[in-house]
Each structure stands twice: as structure tokens, then as C-alpha cells.
């Protein structure tokens, strides 16, 4: 741990990975760091550029320590286009929400005493972050995590529409259950891609939630035959590599205008949902570590008008509804959780 006189600590994600959550890989970039949610080494020239862009967005990536620092500071360099804000959380409660431009120096005073302090990076927009600085600190120590889990999905999982990065539905599940998530939601790009499969196959998690179907419907990625085979193969491959990993498959939540409208391969969203659920039902019948949830159980058809402003993406209230209902279901999954031990800062 780097320390200067006066109790100022500088914490970067490569030297001090124990202080960071949510990134699968970090890349140094001229004194700043880029969080990758799919490692750059997993991509090839034939992979879609948009998935690569989204893999560099820091959805769910956060700094988390216990400290008595007087203030926290970090420099955020944003790319082109819109960027979500940065959140500072103190003892589980939102302390500050800071809009991001190019560049932004986030500096936030902290309450006196020892607290759990988190800095959440934007869930949407390409950014690089400098080391997090903590001033006036006599204590900077790791925080013990709860169960480590990952959510793979679309924009509905990435949650651009959340008010801030700590308000996504996976973040709220962490609060409800005391867990620690990795957000593998990729807006428009949840198509069972090989880089995502390879990342999940080696992920250091104890539960996988796979929310599958809406992007496949929108892009007409697979027809009736291909969808069942590709989805089933994707999940069986993961279960083969990680046989003790509980996998929960979630079918699409409702989208009223898409339910009975056929895409270019002739599938309606209702039919995509049925295929996903049939795959879930088949796999669950033969594997004790596999289960599935119907999307409309998390957000009902009769709730769509109020909770889906654009008919597809949940508003903040809808995310809370999903988080509450998923927490209840996931909390009942049989899990064998072994806490991870971190080195205490010297």
C-alpha cells in the first residue's frame, strides 16, 4: 500500500485488487485504469466491436474499503457520448452522486469515524479511472464480501436507466442479501457469444444468473431450432466446466408490443420466452444445481405499463421490484458459500 505523510493513501486496482469489485480484468492506461468486464484477451478481430465497447464499460465496478479517511478522491476520464454518474456510498447509504464530464475529479468529504466507503463507477459510458486517494486516514482495510455472484444479460441487466450505478437491480440484490455481484449485462449484445461464455467459465463466482432472450429476439439471432440448441449448449458447457456452480436461467420479462410480434426469423417474444423456459425446464430436471425463473414472475404483464416507460426497460421503480422478487428467489437457492479472505493492509 502506497502511503505519504499525513495518512494519504493511493489505491489502484492493479496493485490493490482486494479494494475493487466487479471488474474481470484491469488494463493500465497512462496512469489511469480501464475496467474490462470481459477480458480483452478473450476477443478476436471477428468479434463484434459493440460488445468490445460494452465490455469496457464499468457497470457494477466499485471501490470498497473500511476507512476513517476525511475524504475520498478519484479522477475519472470519460469518453465520447453520455456517461452515467459516480456514486459514493457510506455504510450502505448513498452519500454523494456526481455527474461525469471529460474529465472529472471526484472529491467527496466523508463523515468522521470509521465507515465502509464505496465509490461506484458509471454503469454506462466508457471511462478510465485514476487511483483512488484517501486523505487523513489512519485505517484502510478490506471489507469481507458475502456470496460472489454474476448476472449475465442485456441492457436490462446493465441498467443504464438506473439513477446511478449503485441503483441497478443487481446492486440492490447485494444490499438485500449481503452479496457481491459482477455485472455482465451488455446492452443489445447478450447473444451467447463465445467471449462471454469463456469469461463465465472461469469466473470466480458462486452463483450465475443468466437473463436470456430479449436481445436474441430483437436481433433475430437464432430461429426456433437454433435458439434451443445454442442456449442449451452454452449452459451445459458452463456446467461442465464448473459442475458445482448453481446456474439460474431467467426468461425475458414482458414487453407488450413485442409479445405477439414476429421478428425476422418468425419468433415472437412470447415464443422466445417459451423456448428459454423449455431449456430451463429440461436442464433443471437432470441437474440439481440448475434452476430457472420465468421473467413475468419478476415483473408481471399487468405491471408493464407502469414500470416499463419505453415498453422494454424497467424504470428505477421497476428495478427495485425485480431486485426484491429475485432476492426472494435467489435466497432460497441451495448454496455452499465459503467466504474469501483478504490480506489486511499493512
Structural description of this entry:
The protein is α+β, with helices and mostly antiparallel strands and 346 residues long. The protein has two domains: 2-141, Galactose-binding domain-like (Jelly Rolls), CATH 2.60.120.260; 148-330, Rossmann fold (3-Layer(aba) Sandwich), CATH 3.40.50. It is 26% helix and 26% strand. It has nine helices and 19 strands. The chain has helices at 49-55, 155-158, 169-177, 194-201, 214-219, 224-241, 269-286, 304-307, 316-330; strands at 2-4, 8-11, 20-21, 25-29, 32-36, 62-67, 71-78, 86-90, 93-98, 104-109, 115-120, 127-129, 132-135, 140-141, 148-153, 180-185, 207-211, 247-250, 290-293. α3 (169-177) packs across α9 (316-330) and α6 runs parallel beside α7. Residues 1-5 and 334-346 have low confidence and may be disordered.
Count of domain modules: 2
The number of helices is: 9
Shape: globular
Order of helices and strands: EEEEEHEEEEEEEEEEHHEHEHHEHEHH
Which assembly state applies to the chains in this document?
A: single chain
CATH superfamily of the largest domain: SGNH hydrolase
Helix content: 25-40%
Proportion of residues in extended strands: 25-35%
Distance between the termini: 7 Å
The total of beta strands comes to 19
Say what the CATH topology of the largest domain is.
Rossmann fold
| Uncertain parts | 1-5, 334-346
User: Mind telling me the CATH class of the largest domain?
Assistant: Alpha Beta
The CATH architecture of the largest domain can be given as: 3-Layer(aba) Sandwich
**Main β-sheet, in a few words?**
6 strands, antiparallel
Pfam families: Lipase_GDSL_3, SsfX3_N
Protein name: SGNH hydrolase-type esterase domain-containing protein
